[in-house]
Amino acid sequence: MDLPNLDLLSHVPQRWLEVAEKYLKAIPQVRSRLDKETGTVLAHLEKRLKPYKGTLPSFDRLPAQGRPRDEVLRELEGLERREETRWKEGHVSGAVYHGAEDHIAFVNEVYALHSQSNPLHAELWPSATKFEAEVVAMTANMLGAAEANTGLPPEQHICGSLSSGGTESIMLAIKTYRDWAQETRGITRPEMVLPISAHPAFDKAAHYFGVKSVRVPVGTDYRADVAGMRRALTRNTILLVGSAPSFPHGVIDPIAELSELARKRGLGFHTDACLGGFVLPWAKRLGYPVPPFDFQLPGVTTMSADTHKFGYAAKGTSVVLYRGQALRSHQYFTATEWPGGIYFSPTFSGSRPGGLIAAAWATLVTMGEAGYLEATGRVLETAKALKEGISAIPELHVLGDPLFVIAFGSNTLDIYKVMERMGTRGWDLNGLHKPAAVHLCVTLRHTQPGVAERFLEDLRAAVAHVRENPGEKGTMAPVYGMAGTVPFRGLLSDLLKKYMDLLYKV
User: Fold this and answer.
1) Is 353 helix (H, G, I), strand (E, B) or coil?
2) Do you know which Gene3D superfamilies this protein is assigned to (predicted)?
3) Residue burial 117-146, b: 16+ Cβ < 10 Å; e: rest
4) Residue 54: which region, alpha, beta or left (left: phi > 0; alpha: psi -120 to 50)?
5) Residue range(s) defining the domain that contains residue 131
6) What is the spatial distance between Cα 38 and Cα 271, in angstroms, rounded to a whole number?
7) For residue range 480-501, what is the model confidence (pLDDT) as tens digits?
8) Domain count, the chain
9) At what angle do helices 14-26 and 489-503 cross, to 10 degrees?
10) CA 133/CA 81 separation, integer angstroms
């Protein structure tokens, strides 16, 4: 996609750009050109996203007669074999965090035993609530609850619930703060202050719950700017946010300073430890430099930590934690006037998959402290070798000082072309922007013999190819470049919505 020179627009106020974009999109010739350009991009994406089209049966309505189960199982097994190679060989960033066959088999067996259970019906499946309560308690104690609870009555202890993933954990926390601030402080136009590196789940929560998201630029070390976030506070601020670590750059924000700022102002503070919650406590015990980030800090009032990432549980569970039951109570929903009876639910979902809750519990109790220490040691040793290898490539530099999520960019090459070239060698990496970079989230898959060495070998070859072929445009690299430079946010948003439409296309 050929992009115009956008440098002249970089200092134009965003509200002016939004007005200009609205009028430009209304011009038929402009609209036609945009549709043509996005159509080209989507046609290319469809080939990658719909590889089974025309080769496997597809259904846009129920078959008149159900297919034989053995036939369906054979088809599913074939799809699994076709798709598992890349992640099993460690060619992806994040995505699958454990992946050993015996671990997967065990988790699947646990899920099968409890596939019909549902904590909505606690009297039928008390095991589901037992598992959930214990997963929350184990996670809380891993994240400083024992120290935080000392000398306090039970109702003030660290508590929480399970959610479907990090995004829901974050959204539950923001919804909770909104309701808490309205009830206790009378705030009806709530705001939260967070660094630009914080996960977009916070913006999603802001969108759904009417909370203004105030984003503050990070410092040169890619960590949250404490002074900048202090200046962004207003009478409507209800909470501050920090990441441990941030998804883009893998660095830990100054949680101690930020949470103390929140505590002194009587505000909430959320540590997003979705990525690091099941890594950092063990990294600290292994002697790595981990700054304080959890409930041992009195200003931290909520946290999120994903059991389905480095907790190694099956996909679909995360933990959201609160400093005390009074705060958590604002997360709950109750209905007392419904003709169908009294209704209540702790999270957004009503029915919830008890099988996933059981699988999370079984994973934590079989891993144990020793298992997490061993796994974390392997991940961090591999990450150290990768960070050193990337830094040794003259054209590349590592952003900040990460532990296990390694972002790297280039001052001389188009890093997106490097990423795309790595794609031709089977690697699936994450493209970042502002600044342009690529990252690799190191998991147990990368600790397998030879994987880190193969990554560095392929990266050196990709860099050499891009350096020696500067005129080569690539196919997706221009799209990543557009995401970081186009000032018209609506254009990019429109493209993303069409991408999601494509996912639902039969």
Assistant:
1) coil
2) 6.10.140.2150, Aspartate Aminotransferase, domain 1 (3.90.1150.10), Type I PLP-dependent aspartate aminotransferase-like (Major domain) (3.40.640.10)
3) bbbbeeeebebbeebbbebbbbbbbbbbbe
4) left
5) 112-364
6) 38
7) 665 655 556 677 788 888 889 9
8) 2
9) 60
10) 36
